[in-house]
Amino acid sequence: MSSIAVRTRGRFRGGAGLGLVAWLAGIVFFLPIAWMALTSFHSETDAATNPPSWGAALTLDGYREFFGAGGGASPWPALINSTVASVTSTLLVLVLALPAAYALSIRPVKKWTDVLFFFLSTKMLPVVAGLLPIYLFAKNAGMLDNIWLLVILYTSMNLPIAVWMMQSFLSEIPVAVVEAAQIDGARLPTVLTRVVTPIALPGIAATALICFIFSWNELLFARVLTGVVAETAPVFLTGFITSQGLFLAKVCAASLVISLPVLAAGFAAQDKLVQGLSLGAVK
Amino acid sequence: MTATTTAPAAAPQTSAAPRRPSARLRAWATRAPLLPALIFMIVVTQLPFVATLVISFFDWNSLYPDARHFAGFANYQEVLTDPALRKSVWTTVLLTVGVVLASLVIGLLLALLLDRKFRGRAVVRTLLIAPFLVVPVAAALLWKHVLYNPEYGLLNGLLHYVGGPQPDWISGTPLLAVQASLVWQWTPFMMLILLAGLQSRDAQQLEAARVDGASDWQIFVHITLPHLRRYLELGALLGSIYIVQNFDAVFTLTSGGLGTANLPYTVYQTFYQAHENGLASAAGVLVVIGSIVIATFALRVVSSLFREEVSRA
């Protein structure tokens, strides 16, 4: 008995030491982001020093510059475009994925696993596989630099993930609940909005957040298919690729502001993040 | 619809034969909710790929549209013999394998650390996830300008304190610089998957092993690793699928220069700047073939995890 007590105490002490290592690792990984945040509040001259100026005076100049105070292009059109593309495509994904997931879980079609894996396999087709025809199509159809083209492409990009996630959430709903509603005469749209959605709401919300993140982050399609009018936030950021003199505070402010929606959505969906990223394979 | 609502489950078995048309109708009613999503995916993802496949057999520069003609496998031959394109195949392999392996190993260590109870575990978890939640272009800009800058980047700033050298990270070791920034972003992804794997271990089995006097190392080798195997595979395969396609980091950090152009970047450049549609398509098809090889394994792993999940339910 006593030997077990000694062992557990030893284990505990080792655990505290490893806890410290974990903290250290967390800080190392977070350091670039913390430094980015700090630099965004520094003046440009304080931002570009070696050794780094940790305690320099704080200012909002970087943010003012980013939002166009210095005469640069305003980021607002790009931020609005990104919001439109991400939110609209996410809604479209939900509208398409919810009935599909229903037909793959609650009232499954024959060979529903095959269908599920077809959706997954499209996710494994690289973007560059269809980029050129899509570009040529957009050029001929006059859809270049059109945010709605991105909405459609982002929907196709996220639909497989959403179908997989929702399939696993919906399969947890007892079929009896759905059947009871159908016996009362409810048709499919009513069943989906009044019965299925309220029960699966946490899962649907997490799915939406993950789709939002992927759409917001996307660069390749946006870079190739948009120009001046439909430019998204990541494309706006590519304007900072070449150095422009002292501009570190501005770059940090821009990167932080544009990452903020993703950070917020990601932390909100933290518990379901793995499930979404692993396409539902890991719970 | 009214027929199905009255007797949802019992009817089909008893009277399937005499009511054939209605059974077929019911099958279509079951399929209907699936069709919009299915048709959408086929139109938006499969048709363009077929078009890519067709274009890849044509010699077609969009600056000289009249000179377009069927070229057979000439584009493939050119992709596979052109030194620059061949190099980009090799770069893609190096980039993907390096990033996946490094982030998998670091992710495993972090997951093992996070699997223990300690003060502030939730905070550390959040700190570790954060890099994955920075917009990829923003992360690449952060590394390029704020960390790697040879004069006033944070890395050289920290080296300054210990009197270390002041390397020019991107010019000196371009591929490594791209890889490091990607490892930073993808380690949290691996960590999350592996942590989920660790937490799905059988607690009773672990306790039994401990009571029987197994050491931490023995438990790790004989219980944890075998259990984690498929999670490691899943992380490696999904990571590969995402990183093979990486465009953002290469585009931002080096603009494909200094020998870091991977296949997606090369495809982009071939048609967007060089206007060589046929060549770009052939390179695109090669990326797809590479992805299919990875994806076949990935699908197998996902399906084995999935079947286990279904049978458990």
Helix vs. strand class of chain B:
mainly alpha
The radius of gyration over CA of chain B amounts to 26 Å
Mean pLDDT of chain B: 84
Indicate the mean pLDDT of chain A.
Answer: 86
Unreliable segments of 5+ consecutive residues of chain A: 1-12
Strand/helix succession of chain A: HHHHHHHHHHHHH
CATH class of the largest domain in chain A: Mainly Alpha
The largest pleated sheet of chain B is described as:
2 strands, antiparallel
C-alpha termini separation of chain B: 30 Å
Give the termini distance of chain A in whole angstroms: 37 Å
| The first-level CATH class name of chain B | Mainly Alpha
The sequence of SSEs of chain B as H and E is HHHHEEHHHHHHHHHHHH
Shape descriptor of chain A reads: globular
Supply Rg of chain A. 24 Å
Could you explain how this protein is built, in words?
- The complex is a heterodimer of chains A (283) and B (313).
- In chain A, 72% of the residues lie in helices and 0% in strands.
- With 283 residues, chain A is mainly alpha-helical.
- Chain A has two domains: 2-66, no CATH class; 76-277, MetI-like (MetI-like fold), CATH 1.10.3720.10.
- The longest helix of chain A has 39 residues, at 2-40.
- Chain B is built from 16 helices and two strands.
- Chain B has a two-stranded antiparallel sheet with strand order 1-2.
- In chain B, helix 6 (83-114) runs parallel beside helix 11, helix 6 packs antiparallel against helix 13 (216-244) and helix 15 (263-272) runs antiparallel to helix 16 (277-312).
- The longest helix of chain B has 36 residues, at 277-312.
- Chain B: This is Carbohydrate ABC transporter permease.
- Chain B: Its main location: membrane.
- Chain B: It is found in: Cell membrane.
- Chain B: It is a multi-pass membrane protein.
